[in-house]
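User: I'm putting together notes for a lab meeting next week and I want to include a structural view of one of the chains we've been expressing. I don't have a solved structure, so I'd like a prediction I can at least talk through. The sequence is below, exactly as it appears in our construct file.
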Amino acid sequence: MRTIARGVLGLLGACAGAGSSGDGGGSVAADTREIQLQVAYEADAAPYVGAAGLSGRDTWSMYGNNLAALVEGTAVTVTHPHALDQMTAMGSLEGETYTSDRILALADTHLPIVPEDGVIVYRAIWLDGTWEEDGASQPGVLGVSLGRTGVIGMFKPVIEGTSVLDPVRRFGEQATILHEVGHALGLVNNGVEMVQVPLR
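Assistant: Thanks for the context. Below is the predicted structure for the 200-residue chain, given as structure tokens.
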């Protein structure tokens, strides 16, 4: 895995567009020292947190372990929230669908970026609604990565509709945020050929 992670990091600088100097999203470059995930959530759409199922593992360990494996052997650290008090509550929002423009505006309002050299910030917004594209609701979309902006929309009602079992919904939510951050990093359909490896 270490060799894969180093090889992928080497490719990222050439494949994902924006620089790494404190902007939203962007590529992992030689001066990158931290990859940060910030989270905001709408009322009734909070991300799953705490112990997951019988294992008792932290729900966010799946995200953290997999991103840490990606940067293993480098000086890059990965930071992300584990609990709701480390995330931004946005309250209730109007409407049930969210366009890319609306998600970007919510990210700018609730998770403003403070530029810092060597830090790449990804911003994920958990929403109590569905993705809207071309004027129509997309009720099968779990999450969306908005190009090279570093902004991700997560659609809680769709995630909750994947199963009646809490551990399955938690896993699905974590798999979705990993997938969407993968898009933002350039690992999925954005410059690097897709390769399947087991999740940690």
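A couple of points you could mention at the meeting. Confidence is low (pLDDT under 50) at residues 1-23. The two ends are 11 Å apart (CA to CA).

User: Perfect, that's what I needed.
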